[in-house]
Amino acid sequence: MNNALPIQAGFVFAGVFAVLLLATLIGNHLKNKHILNPNPVINNMNARISSWWVMMMVLLFAFWFDHIGATLLFFFISLAALREFMTLIYQRRGDHNAIAACFYVLLPLQYYFVLTNWYGMFAVLIPVYAFLILPIISGLSGDTVALFERSAKIQWGAMMSIFCLSHVPAIMTLNIPEFAGRNILLLIFMIVVVQSSDVLQYIFGKLWGKTPIAPALSPNKTVVGTVGGMASATILAACLYQITPFTPFQAALIGFVMCVMGFLGGLVMSGIKRSYGVKDWGKMIHGHGGMLDRVDSICFAAPVFFHIVRYFWA
Amino acid sequence: MSNSLHWLARLIDRSLSLFVSLLTGVRPKFSGSLNFSPEKKVYYANHASHGDFVLVWISLPQKWREVVRPVAGADYWLGGKIRRFIIQQVFNALLIMRNGNDPKAITAQMTEALQNGDSLIIFPEGTRNTDDDVVLLPFKSGIYHLARENPDVQFVPIWIDNINRVLPKGKLIPVPIICDVQIGDELRLHPNESKDEFLQRARDAMLALAPKHKRDLALPQPLSKQKTQENQS
Questions:
Q1: What is the pLDDT at residue B38?
Q2: How far is B163 from chain A (nearest CA, A)?
Q3: What does the pLDDT average to over A62-78?
Q4: Who contacts B87 (Cβ-Cβ below 8 Å, separation ≥6)?
Q5: Does the interface ipTM go beyond 0.90?
Q6: Taking an 8 Å Cβ-Cβ cutoff, which residues of chain B contact chain A?
Q7: CB–CB of A161/A82 below 8 Å?
Q8: Which residues does chain B have within 8 Å of residue A94's beta carbon, measured at their own beta carbons?
Q9: Beta bridge partners of B122
Q10: Which of A97, A156, B29, B137 could bond to B125 as cystine, CB 3.0-4.6 Å?
């Protein structure tokens, strides 16, 4: 296992840091311009930018350690996401043992399978075994009130926070001919495209967005924001084709699919929050809300990306 | 107490605080954010888990803990050497006989500690709330008697959110659910205030700190409760 990032990853990170620097300068300029009547949108944007610096540093540090670093990082991201999910949905003590199983059995096992490259178990642990075992544990607790709903919620928490997120480091286990030792680039490609899509949707929406696209689910997402954000992120994906085994057209197509999945994922997760009457999953990341608020689009995009690459390139 | 035991008590306190902080996400508040002094306060909180008093303990500024004493049942905590060491040396608890028939003696014991300048952590529900459908049990009258005996003492409502989900009664393994400790504004017994009025006011002040969707559940006869009762009949 090589212990240094491929040189192309350096270019991507340099690019991201350049954009962050520019964003920081613009943010400071706007803040100074409105120093007399502080604007909540500008404050939130600046908080987001400073959190992005921290998140990119953490990513860079983790990716330096290749497969192990990426797996460990996403293990902790999964843990934080699972925690936020369970905190919101855990209502009855009859669920205690099932939730303990998610934290202490399913989460470590799933990431163990990622680390040891055991695809068969990685693919079935949660959708098959956890699906059967979690309702058994809940049922045996003896509390039958809303048993079906409770089981479904816990299963969904495990799916989103453990199963879906574990597909990100799982990209490291794919065996792609003529791309050996550079899988981390695919991981970076996916994260950069999905997160840029989120950020660009936010920027387009704040600048030009008026008509909400799905007001019942998320009042902040607008038509212009969505279309503009996804289109520009798709172009970005095409430009990044050199760090992937894809042609520019393929990269654009895959990037587009991930943007759509990420957007729809964000909508669904926002709808779930709304059904519980909360705005954010947590307050872990300053300006962004909780961990799940930041990675909800990755939850939906990662499995799709993983399988596209696995079926057509690996 | 010998030096090494004192050192051990400090070590246990620090490691337990760190462990509970990591598990629940609750961290000490800054003393600047609390607009009252540490001495002679009665912190009263909702009670749903063994972890309750530890959560109140770690959410107070570290310096403040020197004068804070959780009130705990002697019958349980004196039952073993380790338990006894932890409750007496680590938490400096005020141990009371819960099963005794003399509530006046308990009030007197707490009054003495308060008049020494200590602060107390109490749970006015009296027992741990184990019902998923009930947000807050009715208060026992002890808190009123304590207020009447100590008109100079301020009562600080505290809402502990979610700790019953970390470690419900009867479970052994804690799960890392995110908790929250909300500290409200101090209140004291008004002159001529009746027992029921004071209990109601103290209870309302505590409930006001709970998240909204849980407050709604505390209203009399929530819909879900009615349904379960219909099903049972």
A1: 86
A2: 10
A3: 95
A4: B70, B72, B77, B78, B93, B95
A5: no
A6: 130, 132, 162, 164-165, 168, 171, 173, 175-178, 212-213, 228
A7: yes
A8: 132
A9: B44
A10: B137
Predicted TM-score (pTM) of this structure? 0.89
Helix (H, G, I), strand (E, B) or coil at B26: coil
- Residue B226 pLDDT > 70: no
- Across all residues in chain A, what is the average pLDDT? 93
- Cβ(A67)–Cβ(A114) under 8 Å? no
Residues of B in contact with A85 (CB under 8 A): none
Cross-chain residue pair A93–B178, CB shorter than 8 Å: no
Predicted local confidence at residue A284, as pLDDT: 86
What average pLDDT score do residues B91-98 get?
Answer: 88
**Strand order from edge to edge, sheet including B154-161:** B94-96, B68-73, B119-122, B41-45, B154-161, B180-183
Contacts of B162 in chain A (CB under 8 A): 87
Cβ contact (<8 Å) for B162 and A83?
no
How far is C-alpha B75 from the geometric centre of its chain's CA atoms? Answer: 18
Q: Where are the domains of chain A?
A: 48-173, 175-313
Q: How far is CA B42 from the centre of its chain?
A: 9
Tokens of A131: 């699906």
Give the CA angle between residues B120, B125, B127 to the nearest 5°.
95
Of A115-119, A153-157, B37-41, B101-105, the poorest mean pLDDT is in B101-105
Closest A-chain CA to B175: A100
Q: With an 8 Å Cβ cutoff, are A93 and B165 in contact?
A: yes
CB nearest to B165's CB, from A79, A90, A143: A90
Sequence-distant (≥ 6) Cβ neighbours of residue B131 within 8 angstroms:
none
